[in-house]
Design a protein that fits this description.
The structure is a homodimer of 326-residue chains. Chain A is of the alpha+beta class. Chain A is built from 12 helices and 11 strands. Chain A is globular. The interface between A and B is large, with 82 and 82 residues.
Chain lengths: 326, 326
């Protein structure tokens, strides 16, 4: 079913303020969840909201906490997230990076001890909406085996790169796993093969059988050995730039996925001069003969957003009922 | 056959100075080619040297040219490569990025109108050897179809991320194609299947048949739609940050792969504090049960380097004879 964006957001706010969270914070959190559903990222919108509420109730996320500065040098800063809501910490860090980029051309902010940011694309968008190139990445709990290995030791460490563009930003929002586990469960439930191989079965054969991958826990990073290396390197960067916990520490501590490390970079650019360069690149990419429509990263999301604002935001009925009863 | 590193480098210098290139420039270029062969990257070492000499003779690479500054603001700079040797321009730019990072914590240098840098890892190493995190990427001529498309419109735009590490840097040096064309030709010649699918055949089926991929020109980016998006975004960044030519312009101009655009980023970091964090991450990654040895990015290269310095650098005999006759 579809419901108006404002109704969805108001419902999130009702639940949050019911936990004695002040209106400003509740509004900011509600906006992120509502925006994610609006843009079609249901896994980190409505569908994730009950888990987020659980984390608050369990004392894993401190809704009133704010980040504190640990270190600063020139255009780079380190912050402690103090386990505040991940989306508010992330928004804060990208704002800092933009401010540093405004002064220095580029800014880099690393944060430790923060929480899940839900959709990384949110903060890429934030930079691009402000006219800046935005780059960010996070580490996660281990959920992918390294190349050669059979047990999860790497995070799917999403990498976001956003470029401001008139008529709709280009936003790459890419986890290092070929498929999210949410997607694997979905294919498993529907008993449908994956469009491309997504991992190995318990016997070590590459497979499009989602159930077999869920069983083996051997989901595939993009590009096999390449994504494995990229995931490791992103975790190294997030950990050493923030001085925070690595995928290894987060996983081995046995805790839930909290206290992660993240990096936010903003770069100043000349959007007026860029406009024609960007359109030329996109037009050329789309000029290929094609089997299916060629889209730039973020283009499909722009269409979903438009539809959501016109016809209402699609929600899973059962989850919607659940949230209304929170 | 194997030959001593110094002999290989001296041979490159002999050829270069024979073209009236001064000793300093010839030495710097020879070092890059010899280092690449030493580290096992033959495609951009000895094997590429004859083509590089051709490019100089054809007036596509100007050995005496030097980069000139176009723009600077805080910690970011734009340079014009003036079609100087790509490896010298790249070394220069990473040096500038390091210097900016020394002053500002982070530095970003973009260059237009430059030439092929050979092995991107060289410049990641350079930053890491100086104690800085190094990130760089380049655009290229179109050689990959975008996701959904059947004709090449994207470059394989290598991305390099290097992290200083006692006992051997971590260096991810990753083209966005699953396999380089050089690798496809090698499997084709040996009539062996690729270890994992590397592209599509002319009928649009995913295949491990290198010959079929060479025929269809439908090599695969890492992670299917994900690598396609990443390649596009790296080209957008390289183009707008440098104000230079995009993959679209380079390809449509009909020229050889010259006048490309590149970005170099260096970040200051506390290597003493990092040491234990890095080892913990690597140890955890390697602690997975495994089918084959788990390596960190750059680890295999370190072994090849050690062997080359001990036993001599492996060279393809025919190419070695060819270079001796240049």
């Amino acid at each position: 079913m579809r419901i108006p964006y404002q109704q969805l957001k108001a419902e999130f706010e009702r639940v949050l303020t019911g936990l004695n969270i002040n209106n400003n914070i509740a509004g900011a959190i509600a906006t992120v969840f509502a925006d994610n559903s609006r843009d079609g990222v249901h896994s980190h919108g409505l569908n994730r909201f009950p888990t987020f509420i659980e984390y608050i109730k369990e004392g894993l996320v401190f809704p009133d906490a704010v980040p504190t500065k640990v270190n600063a040098f020139g255009a780079i800063e380190q912050w402690n997230g103090n386990l505040a809501p991940g989306m508010l910490n992330a928004r804060f860090c990208m704002d800092r990076a933009i401010s540093l980029a405004n002064d220095n051309g580029i800014g880099c902010v690393a944060i430790k001890n923060t929480n899940h940011w839900m959709r990384g694309g949110t903060y890429g968008q934030q930079a691009a909406d402000a006219g800046y190139i935005g780059l960010c990445f996070t580490n996660t709990i281990a959920n992918l085996p390294p190349w050669g290995g059979t047990e999860p030791r790497l995070g799917n460490n999403p990498l976001i790169i956003a470029i401001p563009r008139e008529g709709g930003n280009v936003v790459l929002d890419m986890a290092i796993s070929q498929y999210a586990f949410g997607k694997l469960w979905q294919y498993e439930a529907q008993n449908k093969p994956l469009p491309v191989p997504g991992g190995y079965d318990t016997e070590g054969n590459l497979t499009t059988d989602a159930a077999a991958i869920v069983e083996s826990k051997r989901a595939l990073p993009i590009g096999f050995w390449k994504g494995s290396g990229l995931s490791l390197v992103l975790d190294l960067l997030a950990t050493i730039l923030s001085g925070g916990d690595s995928t290894a520490v987060i996983t081995q501590s046995g805790r839930k996925e909290t206290g992660v490390s993240q990096v936010f970079i903003a770069i100043k650019t000349d959007n007026e001069r860029n406009a024609s360069l960007i359109e030329q690149i996109i037009d050329y990419t789309k000029s290929s003969e094609s089997d299916t429509e060629i889209l730039f990263p973020g283009e499909n999301m722009l269409r979903t957003r438009e539809q959501s604002l016109k016809e209402g935001v699609w929600v899973d009925e059962m989850t919607w009922e659940k949230v209304k009863n929170l």
